[in-house]
UniProtKB/TrEMBL annotation:
The lineage of its organism: Eukaryota, Metazoa, Chordata, Craniata, Vertebrata. It comes from Equus caballus. InterPro entries: Knr4/Smi1-like_sf, TPGS2. SUPFAM superfamilies: SMI1/KNR4-like. This is Tubulin polyglutamylase complex subunit 2.
Amino acid sequence: MEEPPSPLLGCSKPHLEKLTLGITRILESSPGVTEVTILEKAPAERHMISSWEQKNNCVLPEDVKNFYLMTNGFHMTWSVKLDEHVIPLGSMAINSISKLTQLNQSSMYSLPNAPTLADLEDDTQEGDSTFRNTIRKKYQNAHQRNKTVRGQR
């Protein structure tokens, strides 16, 4: 039986830095935050992706397939130090292909300007602040539109 990979402290792999939208750097530089770890899983095999697509009668987008061929999910956790105690605080995970669940999306709940995986493809000339601002603006626009649809101002 294969041993699980040891957790990565911080984010030493560029693709994981993109997947977490730079959150690891932000957490590591935040006062009181400690033990930022990432458990990355081994890549999925092509037959696992094909099997999921057949079982769900759904073709996954190429960027999702490429993600699973790079890593079959990951789990990031972090803690905070309060007085002399370390308290687990946060967790972010992307499920493995075997735990991926198809959602039947209603257009009523979709957000036309919500961030997508394409937003992760930042141009190296743009820099991190431009990338974060793009995500922030898309989120704010989508949130404002959602409030308008529900009749709030």
